[in-house]
Design goal:
single chain; about 150 residues; mainly alpha; 5 helices; about 50% helix
Length: about 150
């Protein structure tokens, strides 16, 4: 996977890149995690809630920044669960541990990630290789499975 290397004119926004299929493998996801760095524990919880809400409340299409943020936020929530198979690289996570998260965030994350997957082609449109798009979907499904509660089976 190639990072975004298109030439940029002085009047253009900075090129946004994607370097992998993981939940933190894009500039948009990295920006989301960076945003959490400066926040109190309560503010982190509020940002996570708003991130999921923006996706579930979105109209026909999900903004790519909102979608990338929801996937990254979902991975953070999933990684905070006991015995979770989702493990985040310290370089991808906020430098401080997440606060204790309310149980409602788990359900909100699942709704948002379901919506991201439903948006299908629009969320995966940036992939040059369809195998990369499918790998990205698999990553999101793995996060969704980690967010399931025992009653979901």
């Amino acid at each position: 996977m190639e990072p975004c290397l298109r030439p940029r004119q002085p009047y253009q926004e900075q090129c946004m890149g994607t370097w992998g299929t993981g939940p933190f493998d894009s500039d948009l996801a990295a920006d989301f995690v960076d945003e959490l760095e400066r926040l109190t524990h309560q503010q982190v919880i509020e940002v996570l809630e708003r991130t999921f809400q923006r996706v579930t409340d979105s109209g026909e299409r999900i903004d790519s920044g909102d979608g990338a943020g929801a996937v990254a936020a979902g991975a953070l929530v999933a990684s905070s669960l006991p015995d979770s198979p989702i493990v985040t690289d310290p370089d991808d996570s906020p430098s401080q541990p997440l606060p204790e998260l309310p149980a409602s965030l788990r359900a909100s994350a699942r709704l948002a990630l379901d919506r991201v997957l439903q948006d299908g082609p629009d969320m995966a449109i940036g992939w040059v290789d369809s195998a990369d798009a499918e790998q990205w979907r698999q990553e999101v499904r793995q996060i969704l499975r980690a967010l399931e509660t025992p009653n979901d089976h």
